[in-house]
Amino acid sequence: MSDAQQQPVFSIEKLYVKDLSVEVPGAPECFLEREAPQMEVNMSTASRELGDDVYQNSLTVTVTAKHGDKTLFLVECTQAGIFRIQNIPQDQMPMVLNIGCPNIVFPYLRETVSDVIIRAGFPPLLLNPVNFEALFMQQQQQQTGAQTH
Length: 149
Prior knowledge:
The chain is an alpha+beta fold. It has three helices and four strands; from the N terminus they run αββββαα.
């Protein structure tokens, strides 16, 4: 094999919004509220192989804003990317899929969520940066701990 065939390849084939929903169940009365809402943000990540050396990585976030027991808005967004990943050692693939890919997808997710919240009539919300490396390491430690018990 030539050197070109052995070189690691990591390329972005496509970045896209896979799923997006916005609900404003209390409109228009909710726009009369003057107090800052309580915000709840939940995020998950998923990866799957699409074919030879092609993978999809997706980040899903749910943002719920409440005032007391009333929901002001609910945004659910899945931002995804298709990546070509070749000649990466198999033991390093979990790091690429759970750290590298989400780091690329997250800024697009953040922009989409902020934009849709503004378009729904609310002040912008910027999702806090996420340390995907720390989350991956924590997940690895939990899996190792579960296997030893």
